[in-house]
């Protein structure tokens, strides 16, 4: 019995190797993966991101937030973009995804790529490259990123909380979650600099204002927050929010670090980042030097974008980013 058991294990591991260990047969992620198959791909995405940015500046915020919410949840597999099905609630419907917007515009980018090269470029690469180009539109650094990701077929709401920290999570737990992706402390501090753009809805803020104002908040910032979030229980249908960085709300810059050192960080994690002894030294450095911020931001975005991708013959190239391909449909 012992031998047949180990024999079974041996066969199983061979099977596992042949199924998942495709490192030898597939080149994995690489720079300019579509060089032969769709040489225009990266230019088309860049053009589309620029066009959309001209019409709706906030699309760039969404592309930046997308790379975190997709890649940090198991894999950059565009599972974030899938709609719920009759059986399963999708990632974008969870509380962690609250406030995410502009999903329909990512379809515009994908459609433009499909017109040039049908069925070649994955939604996960569209998501990652649009984040890269969105960062540039917001005044951030240009970050060279690999491509060759393939799309997952499932999106599961239940797993999201395990990977994405909550607005009030401890710094220890935030650092652990990013460390699992190979992102170190300065990397985490740099990534949170994304909160230098965009907005936070009052539902995520009222606990710092009511029943009494959180004494950690800068008293100069409180009247503005109270004016925007005048309702202790915000009407879920009313769009009530505070801008993350009142100074330069449309720019990805290091003003975020000055804000949080000044106790103007909106989320508890933002505030903690400036006060925890592990993260504070980096917050100070990034507040002083935009170059230092950008350097670590670029490295951390690259690591995030390479988190556990599907490559080779894993997954699929989705036709429409919000639904998995129909089985048996011709590829
Ligand atoms: C501890 C980690 C993080 C937590 C707890 C967190 C939480 C949040 C929350 C609660 C909001 C407000 C959503 C709303 O009310 O509409 C937000 C907005 C945003 N987050 Fe994060 N976030 C984290 C890390 C990141 C990272 C790593 C990025 C990107 C690299 C990012 C990018 C953004 C952007 C761009 C917005 C503004 C979105 C918009 O205006 O549409 N966040 N985040
Ligand atoms: C964080 O906030 C949520 C509500 O958004 C609350 O349910 C949870 O108990 C809070 N967690 C901590 C650790 O305070």
UniProtKB/TrEMBL annotation:
Broad class of enzyme this protein falls into: oxidoreductase
Subcellular location: Secreted
Gene Ontology annotations of biological process type: hydrogen peroxide catabolic process; response to oxidative stress; rhythmic process
GO molecular function: heme binding; lactoperoxidase activity; metal ion binding
Residues that, per the record, bind substrate: 165
Entry EC no(s): 1.11.1.7
Binding site for Ca(2+) 2: 245, 248, 253
Residues annotated as signal peptide: 1-23
UniProt-annotated site: Transition state stabilizer, residues: 65
UniProt binding sites for Ca(2+) 1: 70, 73, 77, 79, 91
Cofactor: binding comment: Binds 2 calcium ions per subunit.
Active-site annotation: 69
Cofactor(s) for this UniProt protein: Ca(2+); heme b
Domain Plant heme peroxidase family profile span(s) in chain numbering: 28-325
One GO cellular component, as annotated: extracellular region
PANTHER family xref list: PEROXIDASE, PTHR31517
Function: Removal of H(2)O(2), oxidation of toxic reductants, biosynthesis and degradation of lignin, suberization, auxin catabolism, response to environmental stresses such as wounding, pathogen attack and oxidative stress. These functions might be dependent on each isozyme/isoform in each plant tissue.
Family to which this protein belongs: Belongs to the peroxidase family. Classical plant (class III) peroxidase subfamily.
Protein name in the entry: Peroxidase
Natural source organism: Vanilla planifolia
């Amino acid at each position: 019995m012992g031998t047949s058991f180990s024999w079974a294990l041996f066969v199983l591991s061979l099977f596992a190797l042949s199924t998942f260990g495709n490192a030898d047969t597939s080149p994995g992620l690489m720079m300019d993966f579509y060089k032969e198959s769709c040489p225009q791909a990266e230019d088309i995405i860049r053009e589309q991101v620029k066009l959309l940015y001209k019409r709706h500046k906030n699309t760039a915020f969404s592309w930046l937030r997308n790379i975190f919410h997709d890649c940090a949840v198991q894999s950059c597999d565009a599972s974030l973009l899938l709609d719920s099905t009759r059986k399963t609630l999708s990632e974008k419907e969870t509380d962690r995804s609250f406030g995410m917007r502009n999903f329909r515009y990512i379809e515009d980018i994908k459609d433009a790529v499909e017109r040039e090269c049908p069925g070649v470029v994955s939604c996960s690469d569209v998501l990652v490259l649009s984040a890269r180009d969105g960062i540039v539109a917001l005044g951030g650094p240009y970050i060279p990123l690999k491509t060759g990701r393939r799309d997952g077929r499932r999106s599961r709401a239940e797993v999201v909380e395990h990977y994405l920290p909550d607005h009030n999570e401890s710094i220890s737990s935030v650092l652990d979650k990013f460390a699992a992706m190979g992102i170190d402390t300065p990397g985490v501090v740099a990534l949170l600099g994304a909160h230098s753009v965009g907005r936070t809805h009052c539902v995520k803020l009222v606990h710092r204002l009511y029943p009494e104002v959180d004494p950690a908040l800068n008293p100069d910032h409180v009247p503005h927050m109270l004016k925007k979030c005048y309702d202790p229980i915000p009407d879920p249908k009313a769009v009530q929010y505070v801008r993350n960085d009142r100074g330069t709300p449309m720019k990805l810059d290091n003003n975020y670090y000055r804000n949080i050192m000044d106790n103007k960080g909106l989320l508890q994690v933002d505030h903690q980042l400036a006060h925890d002894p592990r993260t504070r030294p980096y917050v100070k450095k990034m507040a002083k030097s935009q170059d230092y911020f950008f350097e670590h931001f670029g490295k951390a975005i690259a690591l995030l974008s390479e988190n556990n991708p599907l490559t080779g013959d894993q997954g699929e190239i989705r036709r429409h980013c919000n639904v998995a391909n129909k089985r048996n449909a011709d590829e």
